[in-house]
Amino acid sequence: MAKRIYGIFDDEEVLMHAIPSLKKDGVVCKDVQSPFPIHGIEPLLNIPRTRISIASFLYGISGTSFALWMTWYMMVHDWPINIGGKPNFMFYMNLPAFIPVTFELTVFCAAHGMALTFLLRSKLLPGVTAPVPHPRITDDKFVLHVDVKDESKVNDVVALIKKSGASDVLLNSMQFS
Amino acid sequence: MSGNNEAVVRDPLILGKKTYHQMTEDICRPIEGKANKMWWVAFSVAFVTMIWGIICLAYTVGNGIGSWGANKTVGWAWDITNFVWWIGIGHAGTLISAILLLFRQRWRMSINRSAEAMTIFAVICAGLFPVFHTGRPWLDYWMLPLPNQFGSLWVNFNSPLLWDVFAISTYFSVSLVFWYLGLLPDLATVRDRCINPTKRFIYGILSFGWKGTARDWHRFEEVSLVLAGLSTPLVLSVHTIVSFDFATSIVPGWHTTIFPPYFVAGAIFSGFAMVLTLMIIARKVLNLQEYITIQHIELMNKIIILTGSIVGVAYTTEFFIAWYSGVQYESYAFINRATGPYWWAYWSMMTCNVVTPQLFWSKKIRTSVMATFIISIFVNIGMWFERFVIIVTSLHRDFLPSSWTMYSPTYIEVGIFVGTIGLFFTCFLLFSRVFPVIALAELKSILKKTGNQYKKKGIL
């Protein structure tokens, strides 16, 4: 079991420069916690591009299909009514009137499906306890998670992280909340 | 300074000597401190007004909508006016958070949170009107596509009123999700700063255990971008569909193809006016002048000039087409608007919506906080009159002169409208005490690009 230690940085630019140099020294950088998104950090941590937009597209398509099926079933198939001299006999003839609802359901499914996927995928739900290694990670501190395989090397790695610009290194996560 | 990849000629968006920590302090202060006297005064007034609105609503439910001034000829009146007005106000929030995100406008970050909150509260206020206009709100589930055994029949998908049900509910729920996802990181900030364990527990629940890892942020940004891409056509569709309520009818003055773009521009126009009204007060009361700067106000005023001018062109076009079409009913409807018994409403609308925003061409006026505040109130009033003019003047004299009549509201209707304003401000005041009113995490990410002490201004 690898030992996880936490390098605390005060500035995101220092952290961005620290990761490649640490990697060169063979330090395994697992993750970063930051108070705001740091652009361009994903390749440094080998984070692949998220596929959540593809998921959203699929949810959207499902919404479209559902809406088309629903309007066809309710208006044309199950109970067609002649309203104001405008009958509902053929789906394709009434389709223009169904477009607004189809569009809204597409957006509805795409947006909510994606939001739910995001929450589940990132394990964000009411009642989940956040791992907070340092109380100011949501304020102005940037935390680099480093895994040390060989416990005897911990001190060396700590020295390396400090050399790369970290203001502090924590050996244990301070658990809050 | 590194990170400065923005045009050097632009003014900084964040003033003062700020650090990340200072920003956290500034924006969390209104939540962590005690409410001041001003807040309590404002809250009490808003709350009492809301209670009055609830009493009027209860009276309406008990006695039926006969307690309103609406009659056989003017079946849609004050309440649909209010509905369209509130929905329009909601549009600015989504415009700021979605469309300006797609255009990469960084100045949106100081105002998007509160504008989105405003959207949500405005849509809640708007939604009340059609719900109670049905007369039997306990049967409102009939608007859902439920099988025939539940209601009378399947709902009619050919009807623009049903499109409205779908549009408004999608708009409300998507805006809510967009707003709340954006709040998660900032709620986590509040959580991590809490000393009181109960508060910490509550913010822990509210922040969904946000941890801010690189993966989370990566997904978060993608989700925000895609939601913005989805909300942009959504916001345009919502007011388009609201305008279809009118445009698909055959009532003179309503039956016009110009309605969708005209309504959307009007919605953004009134929405920005309301954002300005609220922000000018909030930046002062919450001490956020360094985040919501004169530059922000000026930029919003420029959008007001644009949309106000679009609305002005739309009014003129409508009038011209009414004459040019040669349809006597259409021509009469417009002549009657300008010179008939409701001339005062028409000219209030023209003055407030077309004339006053043009004052913003002067830089002195659009950078003046007081002038902006006054003009924004004018625009709010003008846009209310616009809807009143469209609805009441078109209906009160239709094809059959024997059914011509006048409309005036009862105190119950006025009470409900005033009550929704109370509800809106009650919600906004509570929001400003509970949630960070500025998108803190987002704003931090641009500090080094546009913060006062980082930015090198001028030609390098």
Oligomeric nature of the chains: heterodimer
CATH topology of chain B: Formate dehydrogenase/DMSO reductase fold
State mean pLDDT of chain B (0 to 100 scale): 88
How many helices of chain B in DSSP terms? Answer: 16
The chain pair forming the largest interface, with residue counts per chain, is: A-B, 67 and 68 residues
CATH domain class of the largest domain in chain A = Alpha Beta
What's the count of strands of chain B?
0
User: Which structural category do the helix and sheet elements of chain B fall into?
Assistant: mainly alpha
Task: Give the overall form of chain B.
Answer: globular
Helix content of chain A: 40-55%
- CATH names the topology of the largest domain in chain A as Alpha-Beta Plaits
Q: Shape of chain A from CA axes?
A: rod-shaped
How much of the polypeptide of chain A forms β-strand, as a percent range? 5-15%
Mean pLDDT of chain A: 86
Radius of gyration of chain B: 23 Å
Low-confidence stretches of chain B: none
Strand pairing plus helix content of chain A: what structural class? alpha+beta
| CA-CA gap between termini of chain A | 25 Å
Radius of gyration of chain A: 26 Å
